[in-house]
């Protein structure tokens, strides 16, 4: 369960070029595995992470619409790429470029999800940070009930304006 007492700070943790944060969740998004680099950046001990919702590392600067899009995509058995701002247990933040994929059992049924994150490009972080601020503003204006729909509408409108798919946009920045 996410600790509501953690206060975000301006302290950034920067991933190293050869870092890969790896985690696996069950179908409900509960962490069932995290590699040592994920544990290091999260600031939690392994026993604190296992069984917890993966959003234990969610930073409040992340729009709800981004995660709605991500979950909708992976639940359709597709991979999803995303730039994500995470928050460590001490309130520090770290940006990642995430690739989230469904994990299938021997019968082809989704049994969970894998996420592999690496260091993002600085210019991409600038682009998505601005977009995420706009999406958060749309969420605040819409209110809690319509927040996801409002930020997703902003995102899809931007993509339509650019004439690109989400994946093309994310992979191009």
Describe the sheet with the most strands. 5 strands, antiparallel
Provide the gyration radius in Å: 16 Å
Strand content range: 15-25%
Look at the structure and give the CATH class: Alpha Beta
- Tell me the helix content: 25-40%
CATH architectural name: 2-Layer Sandwich
The backbone outline, from C-alpha atoms, is globular
CATH topology: Beta-Lactamase
**Assembly type:** single chain
What value does the average pLDDT take?
96
Residue ranges: pLDDT <50 for 5 or more in a row? none
Number of helices: 6
Write the element-wise H/E pattern from the N-terminal end onward.
EEHHHEEEHHH
Question: Can you tell me about this structure?
Answer:
With 173 residues, this protein is an alpha+beta fold. The chain has one domain (21-172): Beta-Lactamase, CATH 3.30.450. It has 6 helices and 5 strands. It has helices spanning 36-42, 46-49, 64-74, 122-142, 147-162, 166-172, and strands at 21-25, 31-34, 80-87, 93-104, 110-118. Strands 2-1-5-4-3 form a 5-stranded antiparallel β-sheet. α3 packs across α5 (147-162) and α4 (122-142) packs across α5 (147-162). The longest helix has 21 residues, at 122-142. The relative contact order is 0.17.
Brief descriptors of the model:
single chain; about 170 residues; alpha+beta; Beta-Lactamase; 5-stranded antiparallel sheet; 5 strands; about 40% helix; about 20% strand
């Amino acid at each position: 369960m996410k600790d509501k007492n953690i206060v975000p700070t301006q302290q950034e943790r920067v991933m190293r070029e050869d870092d890969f944060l790896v985690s696996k969740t069950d179908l409900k998004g509960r962490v069932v595995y995290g590699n040592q680099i994920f544990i290091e950046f999260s600031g939690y001990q392994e026993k604190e992470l296992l069984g917890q919702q993966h959003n234990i590392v969610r930073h409040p600067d992340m729009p709800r619409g981004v995660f709605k899009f991500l979950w909708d995509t992976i639940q359709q058995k597709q991979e999803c790429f995303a730039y994500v701002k995470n928050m460590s247990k001490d309130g520090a933040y770290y940006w990642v470029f995430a690739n989230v994929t469904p994990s299938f059992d021997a019968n082809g049924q989704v049994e969970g999800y894998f996420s592999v994150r690496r260091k993002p490009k600085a210019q991409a972080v600038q682009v998505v940070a601005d977009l995420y601020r706009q999406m958060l503003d749309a969420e605040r204006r819409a209110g809690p009930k319509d927040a996801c729909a409002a930020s997703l509408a902003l995102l899809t409108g931007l993509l339509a304006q650019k004439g690109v798919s989400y994946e093309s946009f994310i992979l191009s920045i």
